[in-house]
Specification:
By secondary structure, the chain is an alpha/beta fold. It contains 14 helices and eight strands.
């Protein structure tokens, strides 16, 4: 039987994945027209998951450590400051206390979050604060969160963030294109965004809570992937409804279909409303069952979150000590 420490350590073993960036493909309107989502079947699938999938103790600690490495640690508030961003970066570089890492048998391992996500104004600050850590900076762009800035302004914002050192760009699509079925406009917009990003990876934020139906979510996901998105992402976190399990299931099944048809692996980023370990475990279970083990790694799975890290740290400390750990013991930064 695997020893507990071995089980926890194995959570962080990176499975090598040889895959290039998604090059995209021509817009396939016939594929879109054939796309359907069975709402009741989707609801039944996600409702059954907690009863079929449960992890406890060392197994849960292993899943949570893997989740930690996939977090895009985020601050996107109107009152952000350089000081707050620097504290966030320090937390990303040392997400767990050394004592807790030692207690988990991970004292010799370097743990970091997957990225730090900020507004363009703070990209340069975050890049400087993370120098030497290997942690990429992601910038929200293209008129985030509404995405209603002029198209040329959006492209200049992307270029400015890349120039400041952002390795990843989280763009927001124009929701009107989805709601009116103007797929060519969405495709062209996404292609322009991808081109403006250059070598920086691009995550397409769909704002699923504003797309009205799961079919719209599936079709928008496909169009963005056809246009070259490296990741598809649920939400800005500013909508009333964000990364629900039903939306996740819908989006990752389109990723699976796209991979089956083109051979390209596209990443997935749920964001908004993922604040507890229960939330993130549900997302991980769906990823594992629908896409397989490679999609649990940070190059194909990210979690947009701010408070989630505190709950993961709290649960890991409770696991180690056996006693309840209060939230105020685990500040973000």
């Amino acid at each position: 039987m695997m020893q507990p420490e071995t089980q926890v350590r194995n959570a962080l073993v990176q499975q090598p994945i040889a895959h290039g960036r998604n090059a995209g493909m021509p817009l396939d309107l016939e594929w879109l027209a054939q796309t359907r989502v069975n709402q009741s079947a989707t609801d039944r699938r996600v409702a059954s998951l907690p009863g079929r999938r449960s992890v406890k103790k060392d197994a849960q600690a292993a899943w949570l450590l893997k989740a930690l490495t996939c977090i895009d640690l985020t601050t996107l508030s109107g009152d952000d400051t350089s000081g707050r961003v620097r504290r966030l970066c320090a937390k990303a570089a040392q997400p767990l206390s050394p004592a807790l890492q030692d207690a988990l048998g991970m004292g010799d391992r370097r743990l970091t979050t997957g990225a730090v996500c900020v507004y363009h104004r703070f990209v340069a600050t975050a890049v400087e604060a993370l120098a030497g850590t290997g942690i990429p900076v992601a910038a929200v762009s293209t008129g985030f969160p509404a995405g209603l800035a002029p198209h040329d302004v959006k492209l200049r914002e992307i270029a400015a963030s890349v120039a400041d050192g952002a390795a990843e760009i989280d763009i927001v699509i124009t929701r009107e294109h989805v709601l009116t079925g103007n797929w060519q406009a969405l495709y062209d917009e996404m292609r322009d965004f991808r081109a403006a990003c250059g070598d920086a990876h691009v995550k397409a934020i769909l704002a699923t809570g504003e797309l009205k139906t799961l079919r719209n979510v599936a079709q928008a996901s496909l169009v963005c992937m056809m246009a070259g998105a490296d990741f598809i992402k649920t939400s800005t976190g500013k909508e009333a409804v964000n990364a629900t399990p039903a939306v996740t299931l819908t989006m990752i099944r389109t990723i699976r279909d796209y991979h089956d048809r083109t051979g390209y692996r596209v990443g997935y980023k749920p964001a908004g409303g993922i604040a507890t370990t229960k939330d993130v475990l549900m997302q991980q279970f769906l990823m594992k069952e629908e896409l397989g083990r490679p999609w649990l790694e940070p190059d194909l799975f990210r979690i947009g979150a701010s408070s989630l890290l505190a709950d993961i740290e709290r649960q890991l400390e409770t696991h180690v000590t056996g006693g309840y750990s209060a939230f105020n013991r685990h500040p973000i930064g």
